[in-house]
Amino acid sequence: MKDFLRGIFKPVLSEIVAAEILPAPEQVRTQYAELLTLEPQFAELTDEVRQLATFYQERRILPVTFSNAVLHLALATVAEVDMLVSWNFKHIVRFDKIRLFNAVNREYGYKTIEIYSPREVTTYGAGEETEDS
């Protein structure tokens, strides 16, 4: 969150994210509310996004029951975000899945997408002294 507050990263949100936040723990909803104050970009759920998600599903990259996960990927791809950051290690942040998503992206003329866990991209603490220093 601190990287967003420092302006290092700009959040890109969607109605899919907003729907997933509703049942989330209070701490997550509070952080989401903070992101909303930072003038995030909103990725629109368009026919193009739905079509790309369908292409992912046709390749059976993920089970059909994880349609929100493929929508996240399609939204990020069509919005041409620099990277998708996710805690979803089972379905998204996995080398084999990333390769499959990007193969579909290349096939249909989209750029590949970088996918990382939050721990891989945070700059908070980098170069700062810690209690152990």
SSE arrangement:
Blueprint: H1 2-5, E1 12-13, H2 15-21, H3 26-36, E2 41-42, H4 47-58, H5 67-78, E3 83-85, H6 95-107, E4 114-116, H7 118-121
Parallel strand pairs: 1-2, 3-4
Helix pairs in contact: 4-5
Structural summary, described in words:
This protein is 47% helix and 8% strand. Helix 4 crosses helix 5. The protein is mainly alpha-helical and 133 residues long. The protein is built from 7 helices and 4 strands. The protein has a two-stranded parallel sheet. Strand 3, helix 6 and strand 4 form a beta-alpha-beta unit.
Question: What distinguishing features does this structure have?
Answer:
mainly alpha, two-stranded parallel sheet, 133 residues, single chain, 2 domains, globular, 4 strands
Q: In whole angstroms, how far apart are the ends? A: 24 Å
What class would the helix/strand composition place it in? mainly alpha
Spans of at least 5 consecutive residues with low confidence:
129-133
Report the strand count: 4
Radius of gyration: 16 Å
Give the strand order, joined by hyphens, for the main sheet: 1-2
Q: Please state the overall shape, judged from the principal axes of the Cα atoms.
A: globular
**Biggest sheet features:** 2 strands, parallel
Oligomer: single chain
Into how many domains do the coordinates divide? 2
The average pLDDT score comes to 89
In terms of DSSP E residues, the strand content is: 5-15%
Count of individual helical segments: 7
